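Teaching note: in complex prediction, the entire set of molecules is handled at once rather than each chain in isolation. The prompt given to students was simply: 'Predict the structure of this complex.' The entities are:
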Amino acid sequence: MTMPLKRRLIAMLWPSFVCAGIFSAFLFAFIDPLLLSDSLGVEVSPRLAGYSITFLVLWALGALSTLFGIAILKTPKNDGERKP
Amino acid sequence: MDNTDNSLKQSLYAKRETIHPRHVTGIFATLRVTAVVVLMGIYYGLPWIPWDGRQAVLFDLPARKFYLFGITLWPQDFIYLAALLIVAALSLFFFTAIAGRLWCGFACPQTVWTEVFMWIERKVEGDRNQRIKLDKSLNKKHKVFLKTVKHGIWIILSLWTGYTFVGYFTPIIQLGYKIAALQTGPWETFWVLFYAFATYGNAGWMREQVCLYMCPYARFQSAMFDKNTLVISYDSARGEPRGHRKRSEDIKTAGLGSCINCKLCVQVCPTGIDIRDGLQYQCIGCAACIDACDDVMDKMSYPKGLIRYTTENAFVSGETKLLRPKVILYALVLVAICAALIYGLVTRDAVGLDVIRHRNVLYRVTNEGLAENIYTLKVLNKDNLDHTFRVAVTGLPGISLREEKEVFVTSGHVEEAIIAVLVDPVDMKSPSADIDIQIISKNNPDLNATAKARYLKPR
Ligand code: SF4
Ligand code: SF4
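The expected output is the structure of the full assembly:
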């Protein structure tokens, strides 16, 4: 399966972006980022930093998981079969 | 370069022909421009409206409260936000079932910003033909100059868009001062630039590719279509056989249909498709081709509507059923949720009370022989003022608090308080009973909340 680079990039970065946004909104509707960072024992303030970092981490995790997905979707080429 | 190399290159870089949509005028173009002006006005204007000495619409993330004109929402009111999202989604289903991709053609931010960016492009570089010529032009200087101007304006607009965006989440006026003094926090700077970049990239460069490759709605909208959904279609029975002809020629004797094959409908299409090939998933329903074609039909003195909004059923049987079960269902659910949302907002309690029984001690017997139950109260003050609440208990004869309790809660916060409730066991007939615990604001008795709790009799 070959896919243009651009579409692979989109597949990797875009859905993970949307999901990270939804997850962060959901998470922070229930938890104050200051409390969250307290209980994790790290110092993150102001709140804007807490929201942003969480969002970016979630985004990166999502992108990684799609990267994994794209990688296993690719059918490996069989050397014997390769046409000249 | 050999063949494999070539095809590899092609697969890695999806070759995209830049689409240069031709400017179009007509009823749908007017509608779209109106929609664009209104939506842009709302987006750029809303954060500047004051209300009660604060910003009217502010999703104050740093302070964790949302202001919507007269309403203040706390994180605990998340349910309203969720309901609002459901309403938005249902409206989308509803309108899609009736009129297809109305959203795409007239209201989607992608369309709206692209429209603005294209307007700038047209002002700087001229209409389609001039742009195509410019792209091919060998006059480097002229080309670089025009492109720089265009991108410069785009970037400024994008930055302003990013600033406005962040202005929805942190007070926009202060943000403006901070930017002017170059004193924005790192994250504010990040989000302004991020949103600006996204605007510039999506409306300047990506355009129809956002619809083709990124938009989830574009992928599932067809599931909401049925044979009675309005779509933009080309009347091939009337149009074919297409072909050039003179204005004076009689189409009957020439054996031609109404389509003069001028390809204007293709040139105006922002996604670069030919609607005459039938309904395609790339079509965002912008109706630009209708405007273009109607114009041509007018010039040829043919009746308009060779390309028009119509339904599959209208083509087959000449009839369209507007009120289908699906449409009615969407409408009913939509009205119900809206009503619930408004009712909820209007009757929303400004204070909240949760009562939790003490976990370890079920009950105690005091030295005086009274039963004692311990509760933890969580008092939430959603009002805009601080309040001191008095606690009262009722529901059993002679019920009382061991000590008078007052809880001070600042605006928008939760405080906990522990109370001990006393009852004479001889007054209790059953092993347990429901009691009412109430909190009342001392300076505004209308502000109160009551919660039920279980009272256990010592055994
Ligand atoms: S296809 Fe998607 S991005 Fe494009 S106009 Fe429609 S909703 Fe917007
Ligand atoms: S085919 Fe017509 S309605 Fe569809 S996107 Fe192109 S111009 Fe717009």
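Point out the following to students. The first helix of chain B runs from residue 3 to 12. The first strand of chain B starts at residue 50 and ends at 51.
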